[in-house]
Amino acid sequence: MKYFLPIGVDKAVKTNSNEIPSVKQAVDELFKGTSGDQSGCSNTSSSARIAIYESSSPAPRVMVLEIGNHKEFLRSCIESVFDIVREQGGFLPMVAIKEIVENLVHTDFQGVVVSIMDEGNRLSVSDHGPGISEKKFALEPGFSTAGVTEKALVRGVGSGLAVATQAMAAVGGTLDIQDNLDKGTVATLAMPKKSTKKRRVETDTPRLRLSKRQKKVLFIVVELGAVGPSRIADELSAGLSTAYRDLRLLESAGLIKCDKNGKRTLTDHGINSLDTIISS
Q1: 3-class state of residue 261 by DSSP
Q2: Which of 24, 91, 106, 184 could pair covalently with 128 via S-S, beta carbons 3.0-4.6 A apart?
């Protein structure tokens, strides 16, 4: 449920905001077939705030999201934030937004505040969780302090901040991790200041028509960070030859690459093309 909470008003007021259909469809695509077993999902009665800073007002416009079921909160928060970023004219990649919001699984969703600034080109997600002691390692693939509960909420947990870093680097932006004032973490995505640079999507990307299964393969690579054909086959409940064929197609399109161990990861072109692919 979405609410706007104007500064100085004690009671949240429900609004009938006009949502962009493509945003919901894009989030559905990113979550479809790539979410873990919901049996590990927990619930809480707390809420999170999204603060939208606009040049026309010194005080932010605040949106309140009830957390409740953790998986549903993540989905709703990602959708809402991406919607606002695009409405503000920002070019932050959806995959980077998704990954830093999903990183809240490590915080038990305590003290969550999402701040959107610089016309949608700067996004901070802060919390009052345990914090990240090894910030350098946290940006490397595979580093994780996730337990059973976190892994039930988000598959591929441990690769998220590394994927977000790669996504931001591909569009000339950055991901910065700092300690919060009291406790917890502040993760910030930022595009270069005064930049009008849009996401670089090669002109041949719209011509590439991926099937639903091939899109799902791509999103599994996004979710898990590095994955081989056997894992793809298991996730799709398909034959190994089908997994190889889909991976080869994605490689030939320049969307993924194969490392020396046979694992597939996203290329810069793949990251830049995600929004185009999921809306096609």
Answers
A1: coil
A2: 184
pLDDT score, position 222: 77
Which has the closest alpha carbon to 123: 153, 154, 171, 88? Answer: 88
Q: Is 164 helix (H, G, I), strand (E, B) or coil?
A: helix
Token pair listed for 200 = 């670089």
CATH code of the domain occupying 205-278? 1.10.10.10
Q: Give domain 2-190's CATH architecture.
A: 2-Layer Sandwich (3.30)
pLDDT tens sequence across 246-278: 999 999 989 999 988 889 888 888 877 877 776
Q: Which residues in the chain come in under a pLDDT of 70?
A: 1-45, 137-159, 194-208, 278-280
* DSSP-derived secondary structure for 136-190: HHHTSTT-----HHHHHHSTTTTSHHHHHHHHHHHTT-EEEEEE-SSSSEEEEEE
Per the listing, tokens 């190994």 go with 240
For 201-222, the pLDDT digits (tens) are 443 444 568 888 988 888 888 7
Tell me what pLDDT residue 182 has: 79
As a whole number of angstroms, the distance between CA 99 and CA 198 comes to 20
* Domain boundary assignment for the chain: 2-190, 205-278
Which among 99, 83, 72 has a CA at the least distance from the CA of 222?
99
CA distance 261 to 212: 27
- From residue 20, give the alpha-carbon distance in Å to each of 49, 119, 279: 20, 18, 12
Identity of the residue numbered 223: E
